[in-house]
Amino acid sequence: MLRHFISGISLMSTLGWIALKILFPEEGMAAFCARAFGGIALLGGAWLLYAPKQRLIAAALALYAAVFHLAPVGLDLIGGATTRTVHDFILESCDRSRPRLFAQRLILPDSGDSLRISLDTHLALSSATTLRLRYWRNSGIIHRFEIMQTDESATYCSLHNAYRNRLRR
């Protein structure tokens, strides 16, 4: 009976994770919940593998889920989100040919934080010089951002210029 209950929780967490990853961007509360759902689904899968005596694989899966998914989410729930005004940041990747799994990143050199962002956010930040960020530091997920100051004359790549031209129309 317990096995069926845990199977149901694991299946629902997996479906929730898939839905959040497909339907929502790499930022916001949906991305934070997707990370938690992924960890819960992995823990449920580890328990299901542990029952038929595949203990080494189950232990490795549970350790991965706990360390890389649930621990950062738990620490961020306890510590809360960090709010900063950032003047120095690096946008990584200017290539639309990369698949969605390899999301672009916003790197904050002064603190060493690397935050996943979607392509649309990456393009919106291309001309920004000052940002106000609210993010979960341990999970590396942006909760909310606001562009405080921009430099419209900055040219980064043809992709960003095409984005600016589309916004002007």
Note down, in words, how this protein is organized.
The chain has 169 residues and is α+β, with helices and mostly antiparallel strands. It has helices at 2-23, 29-50, 55-79, 119-124, 158-168; strands at 82-86, 90-92, 104-108, 113-117, 128-136, 141-150. The strands form 2 sheets. Strands 1-5-6 form a 3-stranded antiparallel sheet. The mean pLDDT is 82.
Structural class: alpha+beta
* Topology, number of strands: 6
Spans where pLDDT lies below 50 across 5 or more residues: none
Q: Any idea what the shape is?
A: elongated
The biggest sheet, with number of strands, parallel, antiparallel or mixed sense and barrel status, is: 3 strands, antiparallel
Span of the ends, CA to CA:
60 Å
Summarize, please.
The protein is α+β, with helices and mostly antiparallel strands and 169 residues long. The chain has helices at 2-23, 29-50, 55-79, 119-124, 158-168; strands at residues 82-86, 90-92, 104-108, 113-117, 128-136, 141-150.
